[in-house]
Specification:
Residues 374-396 are annotated as: Disordered. Keywords: Membrane, Transmembrane, Transmembrane helix. The structure is a single chain. It contains 13 helices and 9 strands. By secondary structure, the protein is an alpha+beta fold. The chain has 3 domains: 2-127, no CATH class; 138-261, PH-domain like; 293-372.
Length: 396
Amino acid sequence: MTESFARRAAGLLLIALTAALALIVAARLAAWAAAASAQPLGIGELAVGGVAFWAVTISGLWWHRRRMPMWRVWARWAAFPGVFIALVESVQLAVGHGKPLALAVAIGLAVVCWTLGEAVLLVTTRPVTAGLLASNLEIPFATRRLKARLCVRDDRLVLDSLVSRLKRSRDVIAVPWTTLRSIELIDVDQEMVCQVVVFTGLPQGTTREFDVTPGPALHVVGTARELLVPVTEEVGRAVLRAVEIRSAGVEIEEKALADDRWWRRSGVRKTDALSVAEGRSGAHHRTDYRPYKMALVGAFLLMPLVVLAGTVLSLAAGSAKWQKQFLVFGGTINPGWIATLGVASVGFLFLLHRFVIKPFFRFMEGQNFIEAFPEPPGPPKNTGTVPGSGKKRKKR
């Protein structure tokens, strides 16, 4: 518990440092550009422009509070406002004022922020200690000669990045502890192909293949899946230890998955066809689909609360500019207007919880389900062979 807290704290500190560094450099470049043209932008004005990005970043960090590999993505989100403004100001300085050094500074800032994002991943997931193994933080491991990544989460083993490292959530393969029958480190003595089924939005999944070269590999047998993942000896032993610790005490679901439960949890239409909306959304990559339209609805429902907060803050800060934007005249607020905003905020927050937050949680539960169960339950599979190879696996 102490180690996971320390790792999260270190990650948050680096993310805050990344955002602050980008903002300070952007302000300095803006002041440099303004010396020859207009009024410089201060850090306060630049910070106002980044509020939306930082709000999304904070929400993302909370949502992925156990998914530490995602924290480097949110570190870059936090830095984006400052980096973007720095690039804009540097281009103006380089093109309009003949100062190419500014462009070099902005590019260097982008590189440093990117590097700090990688540092966030390192401090939160490395080294792999006993405290980290016993925590609920996700631990990523590299595979051998594959672009795929093997991750040990608090409740499952996940193989992602099968298609692209830039889109790691596409075609994710998962084996929850409740379905894990066995996992062992074996030696593969000949090259073979492992086939895995991924969800498509239809009752019939699609097959992904990857090569398994001779050497150490993890043989994972689950209720609905069987995997052979090439790894190094060191990674294999670390994964085995992590799985042993995190799956301890978890009862295996002996009862087979009911067919009607799969249809209900997966959200597949029994017409055996994709809707127009599903087809346009890329239903053949359903594990990476996210209902981003909900964000627009959520932003609309938060508007009364944002206006209320802005009105109060403009009065507290004494900023004439903010007071003008939020209709605060003469340094006073109409009590009726505040009451109206308060009632609207409460009502809209209820609608936000009812029609955005709860449906989103249900949707993500469904995504976790289809990662583990891409097809309706079928007849039991023979686990004496390596999946997709048709050849007996080497015994330990």
